[in-house]
User: Fold this.
Amino acid sequence: MPKTVSRTEPGWTPGPWRVIQPIALDYRAPLIYGADRASLVAQAEGGGPKRAIVGAEARANAFLMAAAPELYEVLTWFADLPDEGFDEEGRRQLTKARAALTKARGEMP
Assistant:
């Protein structure tokens, strides 16, 4: 029997999101903006006082975050497929997809 993924609206900024890289690459992390190009979704920086994430790693993180709305949409489609018709590995991947969607919505497993 297919397991239906919750259709609760996630409530995040509508996509697609885009990355804007500030000119001062060494001092500012990439920014992720919503579809309206005015809503700041996130700034890809961090790591704490012992390890600042900058440069190529921050840029890679930014592009991964910016892909989130599209990844969510595709993963939702995949997770709605019935378990039947998949081999054991396919069912494991469906389970992982459903868990990732639960995490993305901020729901408890």
DSSP finds three helices and three strands in the chain. The mean pLDDT is 82. Strands lie at 18-20, 31-33, 40-43. Residues 67-103 form one domain.
